[in-house]
Amino acid sequence: MQLYNYFRSSASYRVRIALALKGLDYDYLPVHLVRNEQQGEAYTALNTAALVPTLVDGEQTVSQSLAIIEYLDETHPQPPLLPADAAGRARVRALALDIACEIHPLNNLRVLRFLTRDMRISEDDKNRWYRHWVETGLSAVEQRLQAAPSRFCHGEQPTLADCVLVPQIFNAQRFDCRLDHVPQIMRVFDACMALPAFSGTQPSACPDAEA
Amino acid sequence: MQLYNYFRSSASYRVRIALALKGLDYDYLPVHLVRNEQQGEAYTALNTAALVPTLVDGEQTVSQSLAIIEYLDETHPQPPLLPADAAGRARVRALALDIACEIHPLNNLRVLRFLTRDMRISEDDKNRWYRHWVETGLSAVEQRLQAAPSRFCHGEQPTLADCVLVPQIFNAQRFDCRLDHVPQIMRVFDACMALPAFSGTQPSACPDAEA
User: Boundaries of each GST N-terminal domain copy (chains A, B) (predicted)?
Assistant: First the structure.
């Protein structure tokens, strides 16, 4: 398998964690977002939306990080990244979507660029925008976790929800967001980071990492 | 089952379509977003994120529209809303996420309110923002559909991807977005709207509809 991705892209990091949890080898193919390599012809031939990550698995090309992780879970079921019961699966997917739909899309690079370049908002307002969605979004996740606290987001093993949560915390830390209001999230984050699948795939450990 | 939702919320409409495709009865419980009913104590006790929709199925409370539709597909498998093969499932999920992660989160009511009230951007700039994400996001979806055109987003039966696409087109039309650059999407939209599951659950057909 080949993973087209970028060290600092949190959608990419989600998939790196899932591949590592499943013990799958892959070629790491960097796509430099700040240099706009995702908009080059070579990459858009693979992914018309010009977004990372893209997974190539033989004949299959899969986009969208959550779809990639579900695909990996279906094609390589062990260890499972979703619980066995429908209610548990729904809870894990909802937690992942609470981050992937309510926080991350508002704060990715192309959106921040559009805010400052096209909407002409100031750097200070951009940072305020960023922190608002991270802090309010994580607060909603915290309440869901506190309703049924466990070692990981759901139960005693990492799931899709943890694959999505951990990269979001990296983003939050990079933009100096408040995290003191989400203690259960931070306990889960620490439990995840104790595992090589999470720590060994973090942005600073990637082949294309920059200071 | 009970569905807490709002006639004009496109995330709500996705779930109404899925319930109708599966022929499932439910109580329609309106939550008025413009009056901020989603932030009242009664609703946040059910959904801490204060977002619609929420599905209550006996003991289970499920949030996030895509998680709800996957839950319905697992608990009521006929007719299936995902293909049988892993590659097809990945394509359908990616199409759904292309809209649910890349377009819709940037344009929902709370985000538009934050842009105008907190970031103090003008009404014109807000509309320009809205149309930018709809038009560029749908363009990426169009290219994916044109790579393997079919009656619905994926094949000859409606899937999760159609449940997400159709409400997005309603939003696009409401905000006068360009749609002449996405002919395959509009063919799929027309095929969907010919079915009562899509037309009978549209915003104007809801019990809480307003002019």
Answer: 1-80
> What confidence tier does B79 reach under pLDDT thresholds 50, 70, 90?
very high
Residues of B (120-179) whose Cβ lies below 8 Å from A = 121, 125, 128-129, 132, 140, 143-144, 147
- The answer to whether residue B204 sits within a structural domain is no
Domain final residue pick, A43, A61, A79: A79
Omega before A53 cis (within 30°)? yes
Q: Is the dihedral of CA B15, B10, B49, B81 positive or negative?
A: positive
Whether the pLDDT of residue A109 is over 90: the answer is: no
User: What does each C-alpha distance from A201 to A78, A174, A206 come to in angstroms?
Assistant: 19, 17, 6
| Domain harbouring A51, CATH code | 3.40.30.10
State how far the Cα of B140 lies from the Cα of B95, in Å rounded to an integer.
Answer: 10
Look at residue B36 in the predicted model and tell me its pLDDT.
86
Dist. CA B4–CA A51, nearest whole Å: 33
| Domain of A49, in residue numbers | 2-79
User: Using 50, 70 and 90 to split pLDDT, how confident is the model at A40?
Assistant: confident
d(CA B98, CA A136): 23
Using CA coordinates, name the residue in chain A closest to B93.
Answer: A67
